Each structure stands twice: as C-alpha cells, then as structure tokens.
Amino acid sequence: MRHQSAARNEAALPIWSASRQLARVPCLNPNRLVGPGGRVVFIAPHPGDEILACGGLLQMFSTLGHPLQLISLTDGSAIYPGSQRWSEQRLSVVCPQETAEALRRLGLELHSLKWIRGGFRHGVLEQQADAICQYLRRYLRHDDVVFTTWREDGDSDHDAVGRATAMACAGSGARLIELPVWAWFRPLRDEHLIPWHRARKIRLNTWGVARKQHALHALHSQLQGDPENGIPPVLKPNLIEQARQPFEMVFI
Asked: Record's InterPro entries (predicted)?
C-alpha cells in the first residue's frame, strides 16, 4: 500500500517540479537562437502570455539589441466568463494596460517595441485558425525568429495559436520556436508527452528571474480572480512559483 500511495503522489506532481527529463535538458546560448541583428517576433494568444511564457527571453533579446515585434491575438477579455467584477468590456481595456506595465517592468522601451493587437475572439481561437494564419503571414518575414505557445500545450487557444503560427512560419520561411506554458502543470506521469529531444534551456540570471516575477505581478486582474462569485485567479500561486525557475525552456 505504501508503494501505491507513493506512486499516486508522484503522478500528482507537476512535470516542472519533479521531472528527471527536465534536469537533463541541455542549455543553449540565446545567440544560437537568433543571429546578430535578427528580428524577434513574439506571438501571444492573450495579453500577458508573453510574460509568463518567456519574460526572461524578452528581457534578454531587448538587452542584446534585437528588434522586437509583439503580436497579441486577443485582448484577453474572456479570462473570467460570467464574472460581473471582470466583465469582457472591462478586461478588454485592463488586460492590455496591465501587459504594457508588465513589459515596462521587464525593462522594455515601449516606444521602440512594435506591438500589434489582432482583435481575435478570446476562447474560440481554434475556430479561427485559418484566419489567424493569414493574419500572421502579413507580418512575418523570412528571416524572423518567431516564438509562440506550443501547439500541444493543453489549452485550446494556446494549441490553436501554435498550429496557426507553425503554418504561417512554414509559408513565410520564418523560424519557429515553441514555448510550454500550461504543459508544465501536467502530472508527472505525462512527461513522456513532452518533446524532450527538441527542448533546450536558456539560462536566466537572478536579476532576470526577479524582473520576470515583478512583471507578472503587474497582471492584477489575472492575480485577483472574482472570489465573490467563486472564480479563482488565472495566475495561481503554483504558476507564479513555476515562473521562478532560473531558465526559460524552448522547443526548437
């Protein structure tokens, strides 16, 4: 019985906190991802996803002087369906404002960052995949390096954006780099579903981790939820804890 209990507890642990495979992922210098002067494009399903997925990389590429383009496909308005406190109308204004503050906390100069908002409907991106692909083709160049959510991340919007971005990159010749977000929270028994052969770690220094944490705490609406109506926050404590890792992981 003790062995069965231990097995259940291990299975309940999230991949990020217990995977032996994760410990063996090799590190990669960011210069191997993007060449000198290369443009970096971050495609976020919702405002704030770019902070969570790769806030450290955003800092790094900005410091290295790479031109940055950020595309937020939705306005983040449907993170709390049915909430009176956080109506879609309110969130459509608040979420982009919070993301702008988070980017500022990362040290990015907003006047030099090209930020495009797509206006797609939050929560139903899988129904808009072809339109998203065509939309992205308008902005991608053949020499871009494009970062977005992994197409098997486990969230329907994240998965849809990953697939649409992959198609857009294939059509434009841009290089695609995928990022896990919700996949980190799958139980340890699912670690075999992660493409470890494609995984690489980009090391962050202490300052980089601290800035990412500071930026995440600018996303007030995602941290608060709607407790009066029993709606928990999007950014739960375990997600904030996971973001303290001293690296970003990418799938190349």
From this structure: GlcNAc_PI_deacetylase-related, LmbE-like_dom_sf
Q: Which distant-in-sequence residues (6+ apart) come within 8 Å of 195 by Cβ?
A: 251
Write the single-letter amino acid at 132: I
Strands 68-72 and 145-149: unpaired
Measured torsion, CA atoms of residues 187, 129, 234, 40, in degrees rounded to the nearest 10: 90
Task: Give residue limits of the domains in the chain.
Answer: 39-76+86-114+121-251
Q: H helices of 128-247, where?
A: 129-137, 156-172, 206-216, 220-224, 237-242
| 93-129 per-position pLDDT tens digit | 999 999 999 999 999 987 778 999 999 999 899 999 9
**39-76+86-114+121-251 classified as CATH 3.40.50.10320:** yes
pTM of the full structure = 0.92
